[in-house]
Amino acid sequence: MRTLLVSAIALAAASPALAQTTTGTPNNYDGFRGEIRLGYETPTVSGDGDVYKLGSAVSYGGEIGYDLAVSPTVTVGPYASLEESSVKLEDETSSAAIKVGRNYQLGGRIGVGLGGVLGYFKLGYSNIKLTAVDTGFSASDTKGGIGGGLGVEGNLGRNAYVGVEANYSDFGKFEGINLQRRQLALKGGFRF
């Protein structure tokens, strides 16, 4: 990751020279953006060398961000996302259940134009909410960790875009077990 960041900084420093020598189209992936997201996610716990699914279900939400063009093909910028999950793990012998609630991320991303599409890498802080429920009882807790993703998006005209993204978050130890979140999301948005 350090190599990727150093490369982006070097590209930003060299952007005036790139702008003079590049004959391609200008960067069409810059500016403020807002998107809606629909995903399939699988929160998991691990311990003793085994990985267990809490469940698999749909997630939905949105993301806002700002992409700054640092060369004709490279963008960098911050993002913030908020998604709700419908994952629920139920005990078959009782009314007890664990519900996976919202997840938010704050971070930055680096994008590179790849002949008509933007490929990008994102990394940031991720925070998940879990709720335990039983008859007459409910308790929630949150856990923060590191999250990131890889994705591609393509423009539909100058302002609209669609894309796909794979995400992974690691929340470290939660109640003595390791907690992770894996997600594949489809998205559509607008640049302003």
SSE topology sketch:
Layout: H1 2-13, H2 15-21, E1 31-47, E2 50-53, E3 57-69, E4 74-85, E5 88-90, E6 97-113, E7 117-134, E8 137-156, E9 160-174, E10 177-191
Please describe what this structure looks like.
Residues 1-19 form the signal peptide. It holds the Pfam family OMP_b-brl. Residues 8-192 form the Outer membrane protein beta-barrel domain. Keywords: Signal. InterPro entries: Autotransporte_beta_dom_sf (IPR036709), Beta-barrel_OMP (IPR027385). With 192 residues, this protein is mainly beta. It has a single domain, classed as Porin (Beta Barrel). It has two helices and ten strands, in the order ααββββββββββ. The chain has helices at residues 2-13, 15-21, and strands at 31-47, 50-53, 57-69, 74-85, 88-90, 97-113, 117-134, 137-156, 160-174, 177-191. Strands 1-3-4-6-7-8-9-10 form an eight-stranded antiparallel barrel. Strand 1 and strand 2 (50-53) form a beta hairpin. The longest helix is centred in the first third of the chain and has 12 residues, at 2-13. The radius of gyration is 19 Å and the shape is elongated. The model is unreliable at 1-25 (pLDDT under 50).
- Rounded mean pLDDT score: 84
List unreliable stretches of 5+ residues: 1-25
Order of helices and strands: HHEEEEEEEEEE
Helix content: under 10%
Structural class: mainly beta
Whole-number count of domains:
1
CATH class group = Mainly Beta
Query: How big is the Rg?
Result: 19 Å
CATH topology: Porin
CATH-scheme architecture: Beta Barrel
Strand content: over 45%
Biggest sheet character: 8 strands, antiparallel, barrel
Shape: elongated
The strand order across the widest sheet is 1-3-4-6-7-8-9-10
How many E-type strands?
10
Cα separation of the termini: 29 Å
The number of distinct helices, counting runs of at least 4 residues, comes to: 2
